[in-house]
Amino acid sequence: SKIETVFEGEVQKEWRPAAVYHYIQSSYVTPDLVVDVSDYWDQKMESIKAYGSQFHDPDSSEPETFISSSQFLDLIEARSLDLGKTIGVAHGEGFTVERVPGVRDLFDLV
Predict the structure, then answer these.
(1) pLDDT tens digits, residue range 27-74?
(2) Distance in angstroms (rounded) separating the CA atoms of residues 99 and 96
(3) What is d(CA 101, CA 27) in angstroms, rounded to the nearest whole number?
(4) Could you identify which of 64, 83, 106, 110 might form a hypothetical disulfide with 92, taking C-beta atoms 3.0 to 4.6 angstroms apart as the criterion?
(5) pTM
(6) What is the DSSP string of 23-70?
(7) In DSSP terms, which residues pair with 96 in a beta bridge?
(8) Are 25 and 95 in contact (CB under 8 A)?
């Protein structure tokens, strides 16, 4: 049987993305694509830090996790600086993709 998604009383049409990009988090993976996030870097870090209970707190008695270590936010920034350097910008975020990205015009590439 087909599963229908209903939103505000309307049956939603199915949708399939043209491409799926996988965000590279903290492990080193060679990206297929790097996006310049320099203009949004401060906002991204503020958003991450809004979840303060998840990250490093030197006064916490909770067990340490990967993201609560004192080095985690430094790792996020270092990764962004490293990827940004690969495309000549301050901060970059890497993505992998299952299929090769394509463009219609080489001049669309920066």
Answers:
(1) 889 999 999 999 999 999 999 889 888 888 888 888 989 999 989 999
(2) 9
(3) 22
(4) 83
(5) 0.77
(6) EP-SS----SEEEE-GGGHHHHHHHHHTTGGGS--TT--SPP-TTTST
(7) 22
(8) no
